[in-house]
Amino acid sequence: MTQPTTISTTMPMAIERLRQAVTQLPLVSWTPIYRGDNNQPIKGKKLMLSDGQPVGIVSKKYKEVQHYEAFGKILDGIEKLDDTQKTKIKYTITNNKAMAWMGVMVNQAGDGINYGFRAINSYDGKSALRYDMKVNNNVRRTFWKTEKYVTLWGVREICNNGMKVNVPLEWDLIITPEEKLIVENLLKQSKRILHMKDPHKEIEGIQYLVEAMVLLEKPLTKMVNMAKAAKIENLDKAKQLITKYIGRKTAEHIIDSYTNDPDKSLWGLYNSVTFTATHRTYTKGTMEKLLDKSAVMLETCLRKPEEINIEVVA
């Protein structure tokens, strides 16, 4: 497998620079597949090529989407922002022969969190075109099952921690009904888009993702400030929370980090989890699971503080 290559910047950048980076990604094409015995094309199948190199065999119904097309509507959304907001955009593009990933940080919330979303496109038929920014239902929770939330990806500048935060859209302490309605309407086009029928038509609405992301800065900052105010001075209580929400295997490393953190609060404990997940030598899958668990811990402890005996101030 070809090793991924990454283009990134941590400095404010111009939209032209990002468009140029996207157009430099590999191009997809296809060719019929022929039988070796009689050199006749195999019906219903085609061979996908990335810059002329074979990457997979797919159905004839498979509709290829170029990386620059998949990511182009995101760039259109960036162009709709005002000039001040545009300067806050930061990006990472990673690709191998078969796939490309684009991470876009669109804004900065409290405590120096640059947050945004990821988009993924493939040429080999193994993955749908995905924009990892959508409204989710709490179907797996034991509480708030009827509520909706948005998962934000982020990086905390002070320590370069990767992180996820679940922002509840029906929690009136952090978001108004008017803001919720706007965000939901902007995100209704965000989903998995299969490479069938007309994927090009479906990606038209993706440009509104960026605008929705910008609007989530206020509720995210409110969550950060509330978590900072929720003090957890007792290390035994911190260990209980980590054991309950994260698990015993990583508890020792997380508590070691928390012991050295001057901010003995729910926010400090959450950052100890994200620091451990990001900076220890875990597999990508393990890191993602830890970040998912940390997001659940943060939201749950903020919304049900009576379960952990801490005071949460809005």
SSE blueprint and pairings:
Layout (H helix, E strand, L loop, with lengths): L4 E5 L5 H9 L4 E7 L6 E10 L2 E7 L7 H13 L3 H4 L3 E6 L3 E11 L3 E10 L7 E2 L3 E3 L10 E9 L4 E8 L8 H11 L11 H4 L5 H8 L1 H13 L5 H11 L5 H9 L6 H14 L4 H20 L11
Antiparallel strand pairs: 1-5, 2-3, 3-4, 5-6, 6-7, 7-8, 7-10, 9-10, 10-11
What features would you describe in this structure?
It is a single chain. By secondary structure, the chain is of the alpha+beta class. Strands 1, 5, 6, 7, 8, 9, 10 and 11 form an eight-stranded antiparallel sheet that branches. The protein has a three-stranded antiparallel sheet with strand order 2-3-4, with no helix packed on it. 36% of the residues are buried. 37% of the residues lie in helices and 25% in strands. The radius of gyration is 22 Å and the shape is globular. The protein has helices at residues 15-23, 67-79, 83-86, 177-187, 199-202, 208-215, 217-229, 235-245, 251-259, 266-279, 284-303; strands at 5-9, 28-34, 41-50, 53-59, 90-95, 99-109, 113-122, 130-131, 135-137, 148-156, 161-168. The protein folds into two domains: 5-25 and 63-215, no CATH class; 230-314.
Keywords:
alpha+beta; three-stranded antiparallel sheet; 11 helices; 25% strand; 314 residues; 2 domains; globular
Helix and strand pattern: EHEEEHHEEEEEEEHHHHHHHH
Uncertain segments are none
Q: In angstroms, what separates the terminal alpha carbons? A: 49 Å
So what's the overall shape? Answer: globular
In round numbers, the mean pLDDT is 83
Number of strands: 11
Main beta sheet, described? 8 strands, antiparallel
Q: Give the fraction of residues assigned to helices.
A: 25-40%
Gyration radius over CA: 22 Å
Tally of discrete structural domains: 2
Strand content: 15-25%
Total helices: the number is 11
The oligomerization state is single chain
Estimated structural class? alpha+beta
